[in-house]
């Protein structure tokens, strides 16, 4: 049964983790895409920015000597989410809103977001350098080893991974409640569906825009923090994480938060399973097979991992540009 | 007409005269050898910027993958013009590569046939299944073959080596390869909104770079290839000025020819049609223009210029290093050149490329100097301990400045230095 444990550790857990990260990022991107109607290229660096906010706050908390049962970084994440949301609104006011007001074409705003991503990248690396950092300042991360029946090796899951999965579930439920029950959430869906009609019915578009940036910024911060808690905080996420997030957004259908969640997990699992070494799973049944198992049997070599989200994106664009959840194709 | 264009001609003259003075100052202060290198690189960037300005300025296409097309062009030009590797030709390598090409063509035909099967009375569900099977089968066949091929070639001869053809042939092939890649990307994305093209080009650029970095059998990967052949005499004999000056001549002549052709196209019916599509897509479509086909045309043309310019740039650097292709230097710097110079104006693109590149080159020592100054005085006055990687952080300042320039130009001067001239008839 060690093979099954290996599959759970390297396939299922890894897919869940990276899928949650993509989902949290894609929710923000899809809402910005649906409501403000442009592809937000600065989302990857917003994640890094949020993670750095958390790191600074964690350092402050640690220097105060606070001890908590959960990692300090997780506690610091919540104020950092508020700060990142605030910064996101600020970025919108400074760089996107003037262009929107001037009636610029959406592609010009996309370009401005590319400019913003470079500015964030430059600033973060200027102040923090380019090396990786550990988010666990006060104590090493806890690792849970759960014995699996019939296997000599345990199922391994780390503390940040548990926190990430729990946070994703809570965030998705809260988002669902917000979008379907609250007044502002319904207004957001209305603006996303038909902005002119929403404006005529008296919906305050400004509030909707703020809410979009608050949700997008806060979730980006959470995704960035939780990802860097799981591995390390490296300021080079930006373009590498942007492509899977955009793929998740488009697969899920633009403007569809639930689609973004599904798309995030789909892309995450595809990526993990494509680089997963299947020959380990097949080894116990080698004597039933007609061919010799190679030492490594991954669909895609690990260094070409980025191909997977790109291929998903291309296939969706060719055969179903609306995405699986019937989003829009913006024209 | 003369009244309308007179001030802008003055503007051209003044700006280019200013540029000439700047270049003269640099020649005087930095020495001829250094300045010639800078001018050659600026000229290559001008060709790349011309490619981007026709995509963005003529047709409003947002291409964030300039680096990918430059890299693809440089790699293919390297393969065509680098001297042959006799070990490879004496091994089983050529057969394997030939077989790979045959299989590639076969898979291409299979996928094409599957996607056209609806013309031969196959239902949509079956067609989707056929396409999926064709793609999966080709992928398995090709990747298995590629693994074996890569292993064989790396064991037998290290890498493939070039074909040893003339450099000019390499440059033309560079343009062609970039154009073919652009055709596939454009075919998929151009029917959709500009954002999708941006996302797809971003992705393809990262993938091309990853591929070139890891394909040791094809391009030696990160081991780099040098020296790249030049179409003129190389500085190997010590004649730096002569060699660089003749390379500069080649670049300048190429740039002028491309500029004249593009200028001709801009004022021709084809250019008018492109602008009509850019300015009002629906009206142009109502007039019977095939919007998507025309966009594909100009996207491919722009990418051909990028591949071509990129090949010239990398040949001049004389070392082919796939890790040297950076989003910042090869995509966003070109974007700054185009929007600062004036999108849709070919002279603007050339001016922007030369001007921005000079500033860019000069800013490197300046940023380092500024930061070491801050470090020294910060330590002396405030007792601040500067981080040890101050020099590499200084470079990040330029990333910030590039981003800031893009956002500021878009907001306050969307026309750039040399705005597009509205032709009046």
Provide a descriptive summary of the structure in words.
The complex is a heterodimer of chains A (331) and B (425). Chain A is mostly helical and 331 residues long. Chain A contains twelve helices and two strands. Chain A has helices spanning 2-36, 43-63, 72-101, 106-128, 159-181, 183-193, 195-200, 205-230, 238-252, 257-275, 278-282, 307-319, and strands spanning 143-146, 155-158. Chain A has a two-stranded antiparallel ribbon. In chain A, strand 1 and strand 2 (155-158) form a beta hairpin. In chain A, helix 1 packs antiparallel against helix 8 (205-230) and helix 1 (2-36) runs antiparallel to helix 10 (257-275). The longest helix of chain A is centred in the first third of the chain and has 35 residues, at 2-36. The termini of chain A are far apart. Chain B is mainly alpha-helical and 425 residues long. Chain B has helices at residues 2-30, 32-59, 66-81, 86-90, 93-115, 124-157, 167-189, 194-214, 216-219, 240-267, 269-279, 281-286, 291-317, 327-341, 346-382, 390-412. In chain B, helix 2 runs parallel beside helix 10 (240-267), helix 3 (66-81) packs antiparallel against helix 7 and helix 7 (167-189) runs antiparallel to helix 13. The model of chain B has no long low-confidence stretch (mean pLDDT 86). At the A-B interface, helix 3, helix 4, helix 9 and helix 12 of A face helix 8, helix 14 and helix 16 of B.
Q: Which spans of chain A of ≥5 residues are poorly predicted at pLDDT below 50?
A: none
Overall shape of chain B: it is: globular
Count of DSSP H/I helices of chain A: 12
Number of strands of chain B: 0
Q: What is the topology, as strand order, of the major beta sheet of chain A?
A: 1-2
**Mean pLDDT over the full residue set of chain B:** 86
- The helix-strand sequence of chain B is HHHHHHHHHHHHHHHH
Helix content of chain A: 55-70%
Shape of chain A: globular
- Beginning-to-end CA distance, first to last residue of chain B: 8 Å
Count the E strands of chain A. 2
Oligomer: heterodimer
Give a quick account of the main beta sheet of chain B: strands, pairing sense, barrel closure: none
């Amino acid at each position: 049964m060690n093979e099954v444990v290996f599959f759970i550790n390297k396939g299922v857990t890894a897919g869940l983790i990276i899928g949650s990260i993509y989902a949290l990022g894609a929710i923000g991107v899809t809402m910005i895409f649906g409501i403000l109607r442009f592809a937000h290229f600065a989302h990857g660096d917003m994640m890094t920015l949020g993670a750095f906010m958390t790191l600074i706050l964690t350092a402050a908390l640690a220097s105060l000597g606070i001890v908590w049962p959960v990692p300090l970084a997780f506690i610091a994440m919540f104020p950092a989410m508020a700060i990142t949301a605030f910064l996101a609104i600020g970025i919108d006011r400074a760089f996107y809103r003037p262009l929107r007001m001037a009636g610029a074409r959406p592609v010009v705003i996309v370009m401005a977001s590319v400019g913003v991503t470079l500015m964030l990248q430059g600033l973060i690396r200027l102040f923090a350098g380019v090396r990786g950092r550990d988010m666990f300042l006060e104590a090493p991360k806890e690792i849970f080893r759960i014995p699996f029946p019939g296997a000599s090796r345990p199922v391994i899951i780390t503390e940040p991974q548990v926190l990430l999965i729990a946070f994703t579930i809570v965030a998705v439920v809260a988002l669902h409640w917000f979008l379907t029950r609250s007044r502002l959430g319904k207004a957001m869906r209305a603006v996303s569906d038909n902005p002119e009609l929403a404006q005529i019915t008296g919906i305050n578009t400004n509030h909707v825009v703020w809410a979009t940036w608050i949700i997008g910024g806060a979730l980006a911060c959470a995704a960035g923090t939780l990802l860097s808690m799981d591995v390390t905080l490296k300021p080079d996420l930006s373009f590498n994480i942007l492509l899977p997030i955009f793929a998740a957004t488009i697969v899920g259908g633009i403007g569809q938060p639930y689609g973004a969640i599904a798309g995030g997990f789909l892309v995450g699992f595809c990526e993990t399973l494509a680089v997963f070494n299947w020959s380990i799973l097949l080894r116990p049944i080698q004597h039933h097979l007609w061919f010799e198992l190679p030492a490594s049997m991954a669909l895609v070599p690990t260094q070409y991992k980025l191909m997977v989200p790109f291929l998903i994106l291309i296939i969706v664009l060719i055969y179903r540009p609306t995405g699986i959840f019937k989003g829009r194709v913006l024209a | 007409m003369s009244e309308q264009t007179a001030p802008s001609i003055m503007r051209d003259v003044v700006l280019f005269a200013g540029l000439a003075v700047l270049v003269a100052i640099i020649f005087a202060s930095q020495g001829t050898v250094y300045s010639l290198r800078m001018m050659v690189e600026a000229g290559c960037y001008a060709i790349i910027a011309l490619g981007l300005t026709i995509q963005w300025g003529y047709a409003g296409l947002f291409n964030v993958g300039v680096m990918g097309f430059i890299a693809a062009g440089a790699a293919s030009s390297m393969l065509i013009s680098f001297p042959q590797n006799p070990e490879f030709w004496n091994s089983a390598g050529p057969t394997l590569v030939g077989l790979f090409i045959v299989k590639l063509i076969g898979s291409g035909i299979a996928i094409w046939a599957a996607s056209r099967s609806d013309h031969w009375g196959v239902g949509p569900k079956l067609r989707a299944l056929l396409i999926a099977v064709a793609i999966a089968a080709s992928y398995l066949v090709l990747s298995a073959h590629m693994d074996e091929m890569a292993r064989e070639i790396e064991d037998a001869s290290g890498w493939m080596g070039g074909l040893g053809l003339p450099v000019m042939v390499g440059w033309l092939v560079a343009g062609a390869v970039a154009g073919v890649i652009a055709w596939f990307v454009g075919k998929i994305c151009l029917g959709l909104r500009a954002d999708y093209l941006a996302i797809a080009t971003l992705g393809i650029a990262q993938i091309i770079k990853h591929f070139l970095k890891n394909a040791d059998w094809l391009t030696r990967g990160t081991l780099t290839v040098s020296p790249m052949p030049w179409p003129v005499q190389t500085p190997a004999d010590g004649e730096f000025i002569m060699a660089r000056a003749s390379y500069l001549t080649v670049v300048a002549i190429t740039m002028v020819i491309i500029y004249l052709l593009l200028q001709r196209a801009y004022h021709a019916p084809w250019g008018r049609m492109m602008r009509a599509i850019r300015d009002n897509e629906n009206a142009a479509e109502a007039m019977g223009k095939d919007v998507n086909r025309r966009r594909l045309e100009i996207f491919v043309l722009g990418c051909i210029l990028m591949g071509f310019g990129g090949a010239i740039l990398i040949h001049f650097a004389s070392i082919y290093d796939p890790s040297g292709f950076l989003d910042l230097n090869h995509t966003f710097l070109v974007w700054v050149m185009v929007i600062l110079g004036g999108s849709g104006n070919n002279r603007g693109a050339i001016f922007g490329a030369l001007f921005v590149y000079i500033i860019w080159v000069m800013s490197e020592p300046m940023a380092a100097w500024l930061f070491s100054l801050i470090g020294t005085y910060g330590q002396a006055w405030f007792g601040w301990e500067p981080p040890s990687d101050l020099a590499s952080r200084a470079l990040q300042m330029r990333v910030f400045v590039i981003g800031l320039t893009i956002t500021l130009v878009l907001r306050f001067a969307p026309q750039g230095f040399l705005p597009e001239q509205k032709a009046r008839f």
